[in-house]
Design goal:
- The chain is mostly helical.
- The chain has one domain: Metal-dependent hydrolases (TIM Barrel, Alpha-Beta Barrel), CATH 3.20.20.
- 39% of the residues lie in helices and 6% in strands.
- A 3-stranded parallel sheet has the order 1-2-3.
- The longest helix has 19 residues.
- It is globular.
- InterPro entries: Amidohydro-rel, Metal_Hydrolase, Metallo-dep_Hydrolase.
- Pfam families: Amidohydro_1.
- This is Amidohydrolase family protein.
- One of its GO terms (molecular function) is hydrolase activity.
Length: 164
């Protein structure tokens, strides 16, 4: 991270940390340097060394010190579980509106496409979904039975939507 920061600051390049699964360890440093962080993958095994100290608290810790965060998945296979990721961050203390920003506008800003996507504004491209309630409402409920039923439903819905 430190080497990357030195190079990007010399050449005026926008640095975004991708796979910042252990970003909580250097959260203050990341904030001080004004670097954004994309946190994830979070729903995987420990087959990679960078996942040794993974925690769902990472997005919260980074956000609390002022780091712009996004939440990411790691592969198309795990994409059907993606809605669980912001909900786990919410359960760890990330405000709901910040979790939404982490999967929408923040992510778009980090990759330089916020002029076209990431928020509902005139002139932007959008995929619109109409919900009967807040999309995260029941995901971060304390009731474990409700959580299991919703996770299964979510898995079926999102896996069917992501098949080609």
């Amino acid at each position: 991270m430190i080497g990357n920061y030195l190079i990007t600051s010399q050449f005026d390049i926008n640095l975004v940390l991708i796979h910042a699964t252990e970003g909580h360890k250097i959260a203050e440093y990341i904030a001080k340097k004004g670097v954004s962080a994309s946190v994830g993958p979070s729903l995987v095994g420990f087959e990679k060394v960078e996942l040794k100290n993974i925690t769902f608290k990472t997005p919260v810790i980074l956000w609390k010190v002022g780091v712009k965060i996004s939440i990411q998945s790691d592969s198309f296979t795990r994409l059907c579980y993606f809605p669980i990721l912001p909900c786990m961050a919410i359960k760890e203390g990330l405000p709901v509106d910040e979790a939404l920003k982490a999967v929408k506008i923040n992510a778009a800003e980090m990759i330089g496409v916020s002029d076209r996507i990431g928020s509902l504004e005139e002139g932007k491209d959008a995929d619109l979904v109409i919900w009967s309630d807040h999309p995260f409402k029941n995901f971060y409920a304390q009731n474990k039975l409700t959580m299991m039923v919703l996770l299964q439903s979510c898995r079926q819905l999102f896996c069917s939507l992501t098949k080609f």
